[in-house]
């Protein structure tokens, strides 16, 4: 079977010949929806190791609708077009592939960075923490084989940001880099406490999210959420450090439950001290920048500088590199035209 990767979808969509698509995907979601003029259609989200793409099946629904489910691997035949500025697969036939014939890991998006190097960087950040209580707690997390194995693999979210294998580790290392830079500018901030908060703020996602076949939520994650899970994990590791101060534990607990920053975003408390406030804003910054980066990368092949609407950010996105490139090209073209007119006059 020939592999088709989501990253190529934009190129196919811009090809007016609409070359045939015959490729293998994992089904992220499947919904049967009514057409405006009667009948039903299938609305799908498909993915492979380069990302996700929306798909629609308009015809012969009864023949295929019961033949596969979400989390199945399927063979898809169809073509790609553009809808609202984004690539979309139009499915003509879809066939379930037996699970024993595939490796699900091949169909999940992965970080483009080196996992071993990211893990080493995380350890180096922990090594710089000098607080005699925070350092052994963070080291206890790193030295826990089950946690370490999951930390290296887990996504940071189901869909909004860093939604790929290794995404949690990439996000935490990126956040720690931001903490290092910001703490230099604000010497009143307790750097060790800030680093500990960044390390811990999303670690519960290793239990909240499932990512063996597709990205979703575990039962524990649905019922408790990653913040409550993180408090449980923190209490377990703090108990290993004799004499750990109750006041320091309280600050860590607050940073965990306040890092979303707003009640409407799931924080039961607002950040109430400098390290907690900084953690919230830097976490928010890293999440939003990754969301923008990912969408602009997905739509790199699309014509024009506008990449379309980003639902999580509630705004359309402009590719500034494309925009400036277009301006420079127009200026160069105007200069060439002017030189040609001068040459003609001579």
Provide an overview of this structure.
The chain is an alpha+beta fold. The protein folds into two domains: 6-105, OB fold (Dihydrolipoamide Acetyltransferase, E2P); 110-295, Hypothetical protein af1432 (Orthogonal Bundle). Helices cover 45% and strands 19% of the residues. The protein contains 13 helices and nine strands. It has helices at 9-13, 61-64, 115-127, 134-143, 145-151, 167-185, 191-200, 205-208, 219-224, 226-238, 246-258, 274-298, 320-345; strands at residues 21-34, 40-48, 51-57, 73-83, 86-97, 209-210, 216-217, 306-310, 315-318. The strands form three sheets. A five-stranded mixed barrel has the order 1-2-3-5-4. A two-stranded antiparallel sheet has the order 6-7. A two-stranded antiparallel sheet has the order 8-9. Strand 2 and strand 3 form a beta hairpin. Helix 3 (115-127) packs parallel to helix 6 (167-185), helix 6 (167-185) packs across helix 12 and helix 7 packs across helix 11. The longest helix is centred in the C-terminal third of the chain and has 26 residues, at 320-345. The mean pLDDT is 86.
Short structural summary:
By secondary structure, this protein is an alpha+beta fold. It has 13 helices and nine strands. Strand 2 and strand 3 form a beta hairpin.
């Amino acid at each position: 079977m020939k592999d088709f990767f989501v990253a190529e979808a934009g190129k196919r969509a811009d090809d007016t010949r609409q070359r045939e698509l015959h490729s293998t995907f994992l089904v992220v979601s499947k919904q049967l929806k009514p057409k405006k003029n009667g009948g039903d259609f299938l609305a799908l989200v498909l993915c492979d190791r380069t990302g996700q793409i929306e798909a629609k099946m308009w015809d012969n629904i009864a023949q295929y609708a019961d033949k596969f489910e979400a989390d199945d691997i399927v063979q898809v035949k169809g073509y790609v077009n553009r809808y609202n500025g984004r690539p979309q697969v139009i499915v003509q036939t879809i066939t379930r592939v037996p699970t024993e014939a595939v490796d699900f890991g091949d169909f999940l998006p992965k970080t483009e960075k080196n996992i071993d190097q990211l893990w080493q960087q995380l350890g180096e950040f922990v090594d710089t923490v000098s607080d005699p209580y925070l350092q052994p707690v963070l080291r206890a997390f790193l030295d826990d084989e089950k946690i370490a194995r999951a930390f290296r693999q887990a996504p940071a979210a189901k869909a909004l940001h860093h939604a790929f294998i290794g995404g949690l580790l990439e996000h935490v290392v990126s956040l720690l880099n931001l903490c290092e830079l910001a703490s230099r500018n604000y010497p009143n901030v307790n750097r060790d406490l800030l680093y500990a908060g960044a390390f811990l703020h999303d670690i519960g996602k290793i239990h909240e999210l499932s990512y063996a076949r597709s990205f979703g939520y575990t039962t524990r994650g649905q019922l408790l959420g990653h913040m409550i899970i993180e408090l449980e994990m923190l209490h377990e590791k703090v108990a290993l450090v004799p004499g750990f101060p109750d006041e320091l534990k309280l600050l860590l607990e607050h940073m965990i439950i306040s890092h979303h920053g707003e009640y409407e975003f799931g924080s039961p408390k607002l950040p109430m001290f400098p390290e907690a406030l900084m953690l919230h804003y830097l976490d928010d910054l890293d999440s939003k920048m990754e969301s923008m980066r990912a969408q602009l990368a997905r739509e790199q092949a699309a014509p024009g500088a506008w990449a379309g609407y980003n639902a999580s950010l509630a705004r359309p996105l402009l590719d500034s590199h494309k925009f400036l490139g277009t301006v420079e090209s127009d200026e160069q073209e105007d200069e060439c035209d002017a030189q040609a007119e001068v040459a003609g006059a001579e």
